[in-house]
Amino acid sequence: MSQPSPAARVVMSSGDVSRAVRRVAHEILERNKGAQDLVVLGIPSRGVPLARRLVAVMAEVEGVAVPVGTLDVTMQRDDLRHQPVRALARTDIPGPGIDDKVVVLVDDVLFSGRTIRAALEALAELGRPRAVRLAVLVDRGHRELPIRADHVGKNLPTSSTERVHVRLAEVDDEEDGVRISGGDR
H or E segment at 15? Predict the structure, then answer.
């Protein structure tokens, strides 16, 4: 996400982000009936700290450590011809692997669905999960592919000209928050 403009309006405060992460972690555990066979994979860059926050809450609730890792989707993206200069991130699959596990992909913003399509391709190259679920902090709509999130921190209707800026302390060296800029609002 790019730097927000000074006119960006805050739609989620640091407290809102924290509550959303806690709620999503509880939803994941409830749907899975506990932490058994879960593997949580964050999509760089902001999906990674969100994934780590989710598993920290799960550990608090369940008293067990849920395996967490990262899934780089750079080479599976369908826009490489248009934006060829992308830094590769690291894929780090936890020890138990993903075969026959319930994998929860975590990202900051769900928009067109193209990043998640790339994540599904990357995941297929690594193994065969029993199920794949998607958790996002913000779902802003405007899908170009038939992809939906299973767990959403906040549904945020936006115009296609607006930009959503997620800021996380681990990545951005500032307080957590979500802002919207641009558009005709």
Answer: helix 14-32
